[in-house]
Prior knowledge:
This protein is α+β, with helices and mostly antiparallel strands and 493 residues long. The chain has helices spanning 22-26, 63-69, 73-76, 79-84, 154-169, 215-223, 227-241, 243-246, 254-279, 330-349, 352-377, 385-399, 406-413, 425-429, 441-459, 465-475, 483-492; strands spanning 19-20, 45-47, 57-61, 97-99, 102-105, 108-112, 118-127, 130-137, 176-189, 198-209, 281-282, 304-305.
Amino acid sequence: MSENSSNQPDVQLSGIPAFCSRFTDFFESDGGASNYSRQVSDALYSWVSPTRVRAPKTLIYSPDLAEQAGFDKEFCSSDYFAQVFSGNRLLPGMTPFATRYGGHQFGHWAGQLGDGRAINLGETAHDQNSYLAFQLKGAGPTPYSRGADGRAVLRSSLREFLCSEAMHNLGVPTTRAFSLVLTGDSVVRDMFYDGNPQEEPGAVVCRVAPSFTRFGHFELCARKGEHALLKQLMDFTIASDFPHLNQSRAENNETDIYLQWFDEICRRTAEMIVHWMRVGFVHGVMNTDNMSILGLTIDYGPYGWLDNYDPEWTPNTTDFEMRRYRFGKQAVIAQWNLYQLANAILPITGQAATLEEMLTSFAYNYEQRWLQMMIEKLGLGTADYSRDEELLAELDRVMRLHEIDMTIFYRSLVEFDYRNSAGSLSTVIMDAFYAPETVSDEVTRQWNDWGLLYAGRLGAEAMSCDVRKAKMNAVNPCYVLRNYLAQEAIDKA
Length: 493
């Protein structure tokens, strides 16, 4: 049992779902029951107790997630809600724990990492194969905090809440944000990394996903030679998070199930990256410990959205020199991370050649899905790389000629009438340039040349302008969470 079990409610509550924890029911903890930092072996998690906060106050919560999970509005508006989702109290069935994982950070093995400021509360069940796991971020230190305080500030917590909900509503696979609670405590942070730390308002965000299992969970087991535990984790993950694969065990041997599982992880990861590229999202820190086994965007740290189209851009200031995690490199890094996962599960599958084939297929599958996505962004009906290679390559080239806003460009392109303005595309997209008055005649000419290519391609499609506009507006966002919008929200909060 968690040492926090004494925090179970002493009042009759209504309008709340039942909580459980399949993970802690299946696996043994490391045996400790306190939050001191330590190395953990032969265990996947440790019991923890969220650190009490002084004056919790709910700032915002997600009504649709609340309804999906089974919370009613009255409870979500209560002080008890703030107490629970700040870590001060527990609901029946909640058993707080932090998980152990490792990871490659910026291409180098970093050893044990783990939930350093994340505390899992448990999960709610909707049917036999559908669960939502709840996790507090910023609720105090855990055994994996490595000397840090485990706290979070309002600034970063609000950025995570807003971005995860924006991504969800833009159709990007992601973890979600359930609640954001002010703690009433101050947290000291060096915001600008200039040696001048200051007090900031503390906050706790509760994030939700079907599972928070990461590539790094499997990596650390493999690195430590804990092969029995690694196999148990693989079996549990397939049974819990990929039940459709588990149902085929009667027709397939165990190794085939593992390979099908890895192949699905590759496909889900490719789909996630394609969506990042579609909306101009840059994760900023694609370490293997930040990669979800379900292909969900997780850990909104130094993320950013492309303003000016620049495939070399990264929002991570510590990555400015190498730009490992830049926008245009995200698919390559995803494949590299999948290689690390393949190496981790190799002792159990024993199928190096098959895993290698799947990793090679990742690049092809991503390219095909990316091509289809780009065709949809341009309002075309069918994808054919041999036919469209020049169109897309030229688009990438001309978008780099002069600072142009990626989001505004695609929304402006909707208004392009290829029948009447094929040679004057530049006038349609001029508002997408940051300094239209500085766009040279040569840049204008090259854009109009691409417009002729595009017009020819549109003319080959039997599609009305209204249908094309609807297709383009369905995949090209009108708004993304730009940094200044997030900062305005932070300032008001």
